[in-house]
């Protein structure tokens, strides 16, 4: 049986107290150890639990408990581990990304169960049930794929893939039909094409953040002068209880971002610690550093109370927009200044965080912005697709390097095919036949 | 007259000859039946063997113990290693052959094998009993009996030749078509289809003006196809010539379109897109001002020349008028006009990977009857059909080469799993393990198999083992030996590459693209004094190092596929039991009857999740 390391979320997607990620396969402890700060997991015995942190090189991602199982005493009968982290979809995804970076691949539908089965854990009578499970899983994937089709990602990838096939067929043409009277591929044009394709893939991979956001929470930041009412607004948007629970000092729970759900779409408030304390965000850190802290935010709620310095206001506003943020400007404290909450004034939405006035209008605006983003272009929301894009990009990176060295076409072709294969995983297309089809359609070959 | 044989081979083209020879060399009594003993191993199309991907197949045939490579070497008029400017995996041997001698050498080879008998007649019927073939009946009504029958009918089954508006029955120009077998097989439940191919005119070399054409000579140091050291490369080579069509030629050809059997719908069969007729080229690629014409010698002792690139079924007078406008062809005399030929084939998804038919036991198909085109494609199928028919009679498991083992494996796997709509030709792009399937290592890949099945002589296998051993020793030496800067730097500097500052391993030095192993031998001979090697060993060592990363990656992918291929699907497996796979997949799986999960995964219409589900049922 294939023993490669696989990883997947074991608990249902969505917010929960604890989320579990499962790993299995020969070498999975080695993979895990590379992103784990704590005991050396490669040396611990099976059936033991270990405390530590999942790290991203230097930065800590999440505080976790890891249960280690040694073959054959595990669910799959292979070396396995279960990581129990905090139940934030965002953090769990970060952990999965780290594991994939270190060499794990995302488990296929039902793969854990399949491995367990292959290693003799179940009897044949249970096979049908397992098969149905896999079928159900892939149906869910199909639904997801369909919804992504509407968002345009499949279409986008298919276009990229077509361009790449044109490239590949030029190279294949050189290889299989070198004796024919055909023109050969211009290497610098090929390089430009690859660059173009890789740029688009980069965009898509960045779009992964957005696509992901729709599933797991649009990252939202709140900025404003001291006493503009940032934390009051946060607490008003979220419910009081949660804010209180999260506020207990000294627990690690307060690093979890707060999530607000509006019509099924999550809005994740980032860097909440930053504006809970009394530090004056803008003045103490300056505009540049404020923007730096806003880096991962897509939407910015800019809270003002009418006392701001006009010059500073203008500069911050234009910088945020230049940085590609969706800015919702808010005029707070309607209760103090006798303003009509829920209406617009100088492009600012009037609210009172304290009295919870105008918040429905604000929520509607947040939702509108999120949906506007969704129809804006292609979104990659599936980590499997993200992984395929990443692998395709790595293969094209090798092609670029190889072009620089002037290596022979069949070696370029090997990596181009790998890229096509990876993109085909997203669009469900097969490569070899496509290449020949493209050659025969486009070129006059044959004696 | 002997009426009982182990194996009967019907047809004596490239597939039939390899099938008869391999079966006989493996110890079986063989009857080779052909309609015309004068046309054994006839090259019906251009007089050349090998080329890109096809050259690799010939090397594979040789490594397994077949004879096509040897026959080619003995009848070569010109040899070229194509793609030499590219990497090792693309190097492809190609030979111009003496058409007449090629056929004659094959006949001599067959006559030299004691247990091959010949019979000249058309086979019109198969003797079938209880879904098993028992023999054949000829046109004269003679019955021959055998334990297995291999059909290699080429383009002869209901062959129909078209030239302009004329059409007549025939399997090749001047030869009659074969009738009866298609009708019988269809009545037994086989599906038959129609395919089309074509050839160009053949002309009088004395009427051509070669001074108006480009000369293409063979390689200065020609190589050969067979790994057998007793067989030598070609001595005296003949040139080929290149010229081009022009607008005037195209205009004349267009005047014949209203009489073209292709465009008037008289030909229903699908032709190969990569081997288009000249009328198709000017029609589909109207923007091209000219097309290449490749003038090939038919033999050393004849003036006949083959006008490659000018395949056509237009009326003969249009062919003639158009030819005369080609530079060098102003005074051309035509010997035989080009023609198109339609023939029956049987979609190859009706075969097991052993090339045995699923419907009738012990009946094998090889060559164009399976929808392929090309001498090499036909020859390798004949070889495998011969081998597997023998093994079936011996109650042994069939030899099925995998896709990472041989182009032959790719070809048969494609045929039986995907089928083909147009004549199937091998391209390197069909192989996902192109870097592994090289012409230089076919012996290493396949000779063990050839020897173990009793086809490849022992001395040939010993030679391969010796080569592998020397290669291993040399690789080890490269990995363990360090060079001191003063020894190697003069050579490195002479190549314009950076000198080494400290002791460096040979295995590192060889990785530099500019460094060549043969030059190393000259630059630092003192290092190699104790080693045993020859040119083939050096080649293996150099490729092994320089392509290591790519070779390794393909091995990893192949290994993953092997996991699937190790999961056997028993013939009686009931797909209906598996409720969760799609009905389309079920239909395809029941039809193709894959023998393992890897094969199932390559059937179009069977998805990855279908495979996952099947795996659950099958792994136990």
Described by strand count, sense and barrel closure, the largest sheet of chain A is: 7 strands, mixed
As residue ranges, the low-confidence spans of chain A are: 136-151, 240-256, 273-283, 374-379
CATH architectural arrangement of the largest domain in chain A = 3-Layer(aba) Sandwich
Shape of chain B: globular
- Give the overall pLDDT of chain A as a whole number: 75
The CATH architecture assignment of the largest domain in chain B turns out to be: 3-Layer(bba) Sandwich
Can you describe this structure?
The complex is a heterodimer of chains A (447) and B (620). Chain A folds into 2 domains: 6-148, Probable tRNA modification gtpase trme, domain 1 (Gyrase A, domain 2, 2-Layer Sandwich); 152-447, P-loop containing nucleotide triphosphate hydrolases (Rossmann fold, 3-Layer(aba) Sandwich), CATH 3.40.50.300. With 447 residues, chain A is of the alpha/beta class. In chain A, helix 5 (153-176) runs antiparallel to helix 15 (409-427), helix 5 (153-176) crosses helix 16 (432-442) and helix 6 (187-216) runs antiparallel to helix 14. Chain A has helices spanning 28-33, 89-101, 111-118, 127-151, 153-176, 187-216, 230-237, 240-247, 272-276, 281-293, 310-322, 334-337, 359-374, 383-405, 409-427, 432-442; strands at 6-9, 18-24, 36-38, 48-56, 59-69, 80-86, 105-106, 218-224, 258-262, 265-269, 299-304, 326-331, 344-345, 348-350. With 620 residues, chain B is of the alpha+beta class. Chain B has 4 domains: 4-196 and 343-452, FAD/NAD(P)-binding domain (3-Layer(bba) Sandwich); 202-341, Elongation Factor Tu (Ef-tu), domain 3 (Beta Barrel), CATH 2.40.30.260; 461-551, Arc Repressor Mutant, subunit A (Orthogonal Bundle); 566-618, DNA polymerase, domain 1. Helix content of chain B is 35%, strand content 18%. In chain B, strands 1, 2, 6, 7, 8, 9 and 20 form a 7-stranded mixed sheet that branches. A 6-stranded antiparallel sheet of chain B has the order 14-15-16-17-13-18, with no helix packed on it. In chain B, strands 11-10-19-12 form a 4-stranded antiparallel sheet, with no helix packed on it. The termini of chain B are far apart. The model of chain B has no long low-confidence stretch (mean pLDDT 93). The chains are: A alpha/beta (447), B alpha+beta (620).
